[in-house]
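FIELD: query
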Amino acid sequence: MTSTRMPSLFLGHGSPMAALEDTHTTRQWRALGERLPRPRAILMISAHWETKGVLITAGEQPRTIHDFYGFPQPLYDKHYPAPGDPALAKQVAGMLAPYARADLDSWGYDHGTWSVLTHMYPDADVPVIQLSMDLRLAPLGHYQVGKALAPLRDEGVLIMGSGNIVHNLRLYDRRPGVPAQPWAQRFTDTVKAKVEAGDHEALIDYAQLDPEIDLCFPEPEHFHPLLYILGTQQPGERTEFVTDEVFSSISMTSVLVGAEPLAKAA
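FIELD: result
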């Protein structure tokens, strides 16, 4: 890795309430923002923006989207006023042509983006663009889009995916201290082993990784952002797991690609 190459990052984002909370997980997000090289801009792939074709937010000041219901009012009062980056959006559209186009006003920052960035970059002073996931793509297609985006890492862009390796809200038990569902922990451990081994083919073919895959995520949109980040990985780059916890049927495990290792305490 060159000294100027940005790492890339898949974050398990969990509940939008994390935007307001001070927890072990949110403190780890804040620590990541302090640890990583400061990006020129952030390109975010969120589980919460799926479209036909690929869209890129291109507004100068994207809006904060409260894409949920039934939460306390303070969460709806929360806004993340980071600027957009129209020039970067145009560049990304060119890199992915003819399958991508700029989106001026139909989207903005959904909670997969702002609930984590409000901790990583609380001053909201790093430009952000979001990239949608094409509903029509097979898993390999999502991975290939990540590969196409990888050169941006050498231009100071932090490429981030936001989702969850395991995401089953129907079976989620909100009681404090509830252990991980056995299948949720097992699948998380399997994915981690494949990431460590650099076995991207197995992760692209994730449906074959576990006999209870339908429990791990009834729909795959929260898993797919991980494939984009794996696509950005360069030969020989290290991976690291952060926020590595499983709560009931939600895995918060995150994958950091290409970062310098933390210095060991003396």
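FIELD: remark
Residues 182-197 form the longest helix (16 residues).
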